[in-house]
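Quick question: what would this complex look like in 3D?
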Amino acid sequence: MRLGKQTWRFEHDLYIQSTGTCAGPLEGKGPLGDFFDKKYNELHCGEKNWEAAERKLMREAVDICLKNVNKKPEDIDFFMAGDLLNQTVTSNFIARETKIPYLGMFGACSTSMQTLALAAQFVDTGYADSVLVAVSSHNATAERQFRYPTEYGGSKPKTSTFTATGAASALVSQTPSSVKIKEATIGRVIDWGIADANDMGSAMAPAAADTIERHLKDTGRKPTDYDMIVTGDLSSVGSPIVRQLLWERGIDISEMHHDCGLMLYSPEQNVMAGGSGTACSAMVTYGYIVNLLKQKKIQRVFICATGALFNPTVNQQKETIPCVAHGVVLESAGGE
Amino acid sequence: MTRLNDVKNYKKNIKSYHPKTNYFLNGLKAFVIGGLICDLGEAVQKFYITFFDFNEKTAGDPTVATMILIASLLTGFGVYDKIGQFAGAGSLIPVTGFANSITSAALEHKSEGIVLGIATNLFKLAGSVIVFGVVSAAIFGLIRLTVNNLLG
């Protein structure tokens, strides 16, 4: 059922049946390290190049997610996945291995909630019984694609973000578990004229503000109806901006707002303004937040993952950065 | 009242949310680290003059080669990028920064093969330095020639 203009409220009881998370070295040592299923001590993850390492992370996350509920790839109806590499090549290659009917998706760092929202939509409408979602990102593959060679000694400004290394996967179905998927809000693409790829927090904050405002309007809820409103990767620069933007519009989220990019790392870990990358919001959601919901420590959470939709070529052509934010509401269903 | 929501001036108004860049401190760091790198170069040069058959003029070549070797090794060990983040221009400008840009590109593209990976991408970053180096050398050469001819 559609609420307002941009929000879906799912008619059936949909659940995150299982999750799998895989973390890189820095993420594993971060404050949420204990919540990840598997951690690697070095960036290569035992593979011969960075791209293979990223594939390994996604492969492991998918494997863990399926093994948790004793499922095989052939039991799953559809696979929706995305990553930051050209042609979403990591996801394509994992889909080649799993052989589950596959839809590759790209929403930059918002892909985590884009895949989850659509997976829920598929299951809700009865077009699928179970949909597997997965996303991944790797610091070194992202550095190479969006910035400079990994070992290049150029210094980064304080507003820049650090691409998280890791992968996360979730299985969506109507089989009851302790985490329910209630609603999803699909965001509009917003561009307020920021062209600096080293300042994505400022670029993405207006998109996050727009989706959060829309979501609250569509559902008729107040921010206080949520235990947490989590943005994906606005960093220490974008987080205060999104709070201010919404406050000026009469919405006060300062009490329950958190940012995945700031949750994944501790302040001592040298990640400039905070974490980013497709895996960042997914690891925090499927690793940590799902755990809080399972333990009933929180009841309802709105996860709003933000993505900067650009590539280095158009950025060097001085184009500004269009951004999008997609949100999903998760609720605790008790149990455990 | 609605200040930050002013789309037209958003870029300007968010400035106060950005962490301040301390240009003086950055300059000082660059000066000290860049200076230390040059000190090391000086020491290497003295070493070649003292222990080998080189003089002030001829010691330059082996000194530069040694500095390039050191920078490339540090790049390979994953240290140079950390120095770079701290020192900024201090480790970027000297010949070691140039070596780092070439070695890091070679390391990065090794997985794509020797020809299409390493050879094609080797000068990805350093290429611009060479282009501007050659072009500016030509321009200044012409200026010098003109001035010399006019004065002479």
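Answer marked as accepted. The mean pLDDT of chain A is 94.
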